[in-house]
Structure formats: structure tokens, C-alpha cells
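Appendix B. One record, verbatim.
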Amino acid sequence: MAETVFPGADESTPSRAQYFTWINNTNEGTTESQTLANLAFFAYLHDEFGMTLDIYAFDAGAVDGAGFYGSTDSERFRRQFPRGFGPVYSHADAINTRLGIWGGPDGFGKTPQQARQRVEMMSSFCRDFRFALFKFDAVCGQLPADNRGHFVEMMTQCRQYSPDLILLNHRLDLGEGLPHATTFLWEGTETYIDVHVANEIAGTHNRVCALQRGLPPQLKRLCEDHGVCLSSCLDYWDDDLILQAFNRCLILAPEIYGNPWLLRDDELPRLTRIYNLHRRYRSILAHGMVLPEAQFGKNAVSRGDGATRFVTLRNLTWEPVRYAIPLDQSIGLTETGPIELRRLHPHERVIGRFKKGQRVEVEVLPFRACLLLASTRQVAEHSVAGCDYEVVRDTAGKAVMIDLLGSPGTTVHVQLPAPVASVTLEGQPAPQLASGKSMDVTFPGKALKRSWHRKLADLTPIPVPDDALSIYEATCFAADSNALEVRELLRSGLTQIPQVQAARDAFVQQPIFRQRNLWDRFLFDDDSETAFAISRRWPSATELPVRGGAFRLDLGALVQIDRLVLEAGSEQCMQPLKWQEAVGGAVSVDLRNWTPVTGFANGNIDMAIPSDQPIRYFRLCASPELLRHVRGYYRGQALDRTAWRASNLFAKYDSAPATHAWSARFTLDEVAPNSYLALAIHGPHGNELAYAGIRTPSGYVGAPHRAPSFRSNSWECPVRITGGNTTYFFPITPAMVGVELEAVTLLLRGGNPEIRPMLWTTAYPSPLLRRRLVFER
């Protein structure tokens, strides 16, 4: 009879909060210095916001790697971790975090001695460093039948030191070792946004695909949903994490990976709030029930006990949806007494106190998740009555920070639930609130007359316009070909937090990141070791650049220039251009009028630029494989390149000119904070065969972002190729307000004309202003 194995957890075990390092490093593995920088980031979240990370897991390359088994005695490991795991363990332990590691199920070699060495190494991780997780992946290799006994011995010995050791099974046939596995990879799906998953419907953001994801069978928790990727397409990441942590609530939750230090500084309190809320209630969150779709929408779940329930809802449509929530046993509330209902996401709000059995309408915003808390107990979470709010900091020993939220030009009547020692509002004393009285709080600005999320127009067919090239080029020049992680770094801007900066630096300065040549900034840094190149890392990258591509350079403003030099350095790097042949290009002031220019490919491309007027845009007829530097001169003087940007993956317009077009004229009479235009192209249109732009009285506005994402020179895996249901996102500038605008969609040659373009205005984050409340407990 087989021995009964407890695989580190069961279905009722409370979740463990995890971060793992994949796509912070790729298969080459991480290093001690990079790991310490990352742990310092989590230490900052721990000390400032009270967040506890249960598990920090090394992904591929720390010991084992793709297709091989490593050893802590190897030169490779000592190069990456010269002092072993000891220093990393000490820093993690200081914030109550345990380590985990990626690897393969084998590595036992061909001899008994080799097997003993493998068993000893893996068990030492648990004995000496209290490892809490092993992730065994088929990328490293399968487990041969002859070595399954060694595997069972290894796991048995490891759990003598770490009885709660979690073993993640990623696509492995473990045979008799299977009872030792804690989880399986649900649906076999990884969650790198726009790489492994991408939108199947047009929506307001790139993470609609994450909100579409369903539920494990029977709400099983001993599986892994791969967590939430914080490395690409970061907008609306918090909706994704809410569903991962409170809706599916698997054994690893909240679970994130990638580069959370790419979030904006103001987003970090939200990250820690989700972790802290989950941790406080995780013992009851293990118990869930699926709610009827007809009443609560698709994949709604209620978790908790008879007195306290957490309900997750979602809306996958373009319009707000209202659900009538019954406060009774139908959501799992069996205890008697008044029920307090709060919304915890997207923003927190005390909705009210109600009798059991009452129904309360709750609105869920378009393409958003919603988290509700209903309880007969006294809710211990800090709150403010009278408005939406966000708990920024709730850390023992520190003053509580809460941001009051309100629309521009509105006044709210707010009150704390009980008197406190002292209160400041925007740095000024607020004695009324401190004494438990109510107070009016006004948010500056002009009140909005219309909804900040609304449909502006259906685009209707028109003849292909004469300026179709300009509309197409506007988006090609507005967008980029950088790695997805670079796009998010630029999206989030500068940080004021040293630990965030150090983690970002550790990521972008790791040698392999620089060597992959995936950032246009490398063209302008005067570093001979960096370059900007077309990615060839995966078979699907053979589609890069699109239809042969064209190198584009935006000077950022009108610039007087008479010479442009593109430095490649060799014939190999110049391909597909041929040595000593003429190379054509064009320059423009406004994207409408183009002047041809010519150079020669001889290791560099030296272009003479007509100097009768300044220019802003340059387009080469092809995309060289690799460029090391781009320099400009005027009358022999080198030009400042601080604002220059480049791309190398977008197709030449004449490779597939427009055959159909749609248009809508509109005027933005008011604009809410954080607003943008979303031009949704519903239906299949073909691979890179539908583009969009905005025509304004002063020129053209292109879309710097799209869902699914524009092609990318990838840090790890290539952007997923899709051929329909695309949404183009346009920032709204002051010059676009109060004038007639025209949105144009172009279908390029070979595309499917059965599409429906629609234009919406929306906002992210929600266009609410903040006023900070600080008080002592």
C-alpha cells in the first residue's frame, strides 16, 4: 500500500503570498546583487506599508536551467551567487519571507553518487534556508521512470525540514512521485500579457483577457493560475490581481511575477493594500462558492464564512452594469444581525448598513472587476463615510493615511467612524474630523457635465482619404518597437523611492538586457556596447519586422539638420541592405509632405538632408538588422538627441496601402482627468492590417499604444500575433479640446472589410481627485 503523502497544503490551507522572478530574469538566471535589490524593494513595502511576502521564488537559471540540471558546486552558480544563498536568505528572513526555486524533477544522474548529491543539494535548501516552494518545469526536462524513486526520496527528505513545502507541477509526468506535487498548472496557461495571453475582444485596456479568465473546476485551490504578470501592459493590473487573489484565491495568492518596481510610486500603496487585505482574511477566503451567472454575471464568486463574505464581480462590456446583491444566505451569509456592505475595489466605499435579506444595487464599471465585503461583524478596516477613498497606509507604529476621492468641482460630506487623536487634511489640522464630527471637503476644478466614460461615435465608411499615408505614419511614429518592459518603465516615469530605483536599475543594467538591443535609447547613448536591433529570439520573430519594415526616427520637434548618420558597423548589421548600394528614405515636417533623401550602405548610412527648412520625421525604406548609433549634424555641429525616438518594426505603407476607410467627426467639449480615446475595431481584420489615427486642425495624432500591443523587440517572448478586435489608444492633449476632430480607421490591402470601428472616451486611473487625510490611531 502506497504511503500517504501530505503535499505541503490541502484545499483548506490559507493562501501564501508569492513573487517569482521570471522575466525579471530569463533563462540565464539571476544574481545575488539583483536579488538583494529586489528584496530591498519588498523590504520597503514591508516597513512602509506592512506588507508581508510569504515566498520569494527564483525562477529559471538560479541552479537548474532550460534543458540542464545545475549544482551549487558549479562555477556557474558561484559566479551568480558567490556567497551561496546565505546572504539572500538572511535578507528575506528579516521580512518574514521564505525562498523558493525553479528547477526540473530529475538531475539524479546515472550513478548512486550523483543521485545522492542531487538529493542532498535539494534537501539542504529546506534544511539550511527553509525553502517553501519548488517549481518543477518541463522546460528543464521530464522525470525518467528510472529516477522516480530518487524523486520520492528527495521530496520526503525535503519535507522533513519544510513540512509545508509547496511543489508546483508544470506539465510533468511524475509517475509515483505525483502525490508529492501540491499543484498543477491550470489550463497550462502563463499570463505574460500580450505574450501568452491577449485580448480576444476589443476593450478599454490590454488586460481584458485577464478579466475574461474563468474559474478552476470545482473552485479547486491546489492548482496554479501563474499569478499576475507585472512586466507588460500595466494599466488595470489591480483588477487582474483582485480576481487572482479574491476570486480564484488559489494556494498561491496574491501571486505576482516580473517587475513590480515598474509600477508608479502612487500604485504601490494599492499593491500592498491588496496583499494586506488578503492576508488578514485568508483563513476564511479558502472557502468559496460560485454565484449564479444570471444574477451576478459570469464567474462571480463569494468567499468567507457565515458572518463575512467577499464577493467578486466583473463587467466585460462597454457600459456600466448594475447588480442587485442579496445580503443573505445566497451569497453565504448565514449569521443574523445588521450587515455592513463595503466596496473594496476599484475604490473603497462604505455603502451602508442593511437588514439581512435586503438587496443592494452595486455598479460595476466597464471592463473592471469589483470586490465587495459584506459582514455581520464589526469591520476592522479603516474607513471614511461619505465618499470614495483609498487606504494608502495602515501600518503598525505609523500614522494612517487615507486619500479621499472625488470628482472635480464637487463637495462631499465626510466623517470618520470614531474620534482619533489628531487629523490633518492636506497637511492642515482638521479638528472636526478628529472629534468624530462631519466635515465638508471640496475638490477643485470644474464639475463635469457628461460621463467621463462614453461612446463618442460609430465610424462610417468613407473613400480612402488622400492623406491615408499621413494617418498611418502618425501612429507608426507615435508608437515604438521597444521591449514591453521598456514601455512600462516609460509609462510609469521617474520614482522618488530609492529602493524602486535600485530594483529598476538592477533590471535594465543586467548584461543580458543590454546585449539584447531592445531599447531605442541605445541608439543615442554613445555606448559602443549597446545597439538597437530586430529581435530574432523566437521562431515567430521571423514576422519581424512587419512586411519588411522601415526604420523611423522622430526628432521630437522641428530641428535644423543637414546630415544624418546611421552607424551599423558591418555589412552583416546592415542587412537586408546591400553593401555600397544606394538607400532611399524621406523626411517630413508634418507627416503630410515628404522629401526624398538618399544615402549609401557602407557600414554606415550617411544621409544628406535638405537644409532649406527644419524637419522632424525621417523614414528609411528598410529596417537594418542592427544599428549602434544615430547621430545628426548641422553645419558640422553635433545635435542634441535627448528627445529623439526610433522604431524599426512597422511596415512601409506601400507594402499594403489602404483599400477601405471609416471616419467619424467629433468634438471634445470637456475632458476628465486621465482621459484617453479608445478606438475599438470589432471583428477580424487580418494581421497588422487595420490602423487608426486622429486628424486635428493642427495635424495628426497617432496612437502610442494598442491592445493587443504593437510588435516588440522582446526581452523574453514575442508579442502575440492577433488579427482582430484591436483597440487603439490616443492620449487627449489640450489642443484637442473644443475643436473638431476626425477619427479615421484604415483597412490595409488584404484585410477583411467586415469590421465595426467605434470611438469611446474613457479614463485611467478613474478621473477622481485626491485629498490626503492623515491621523494617529
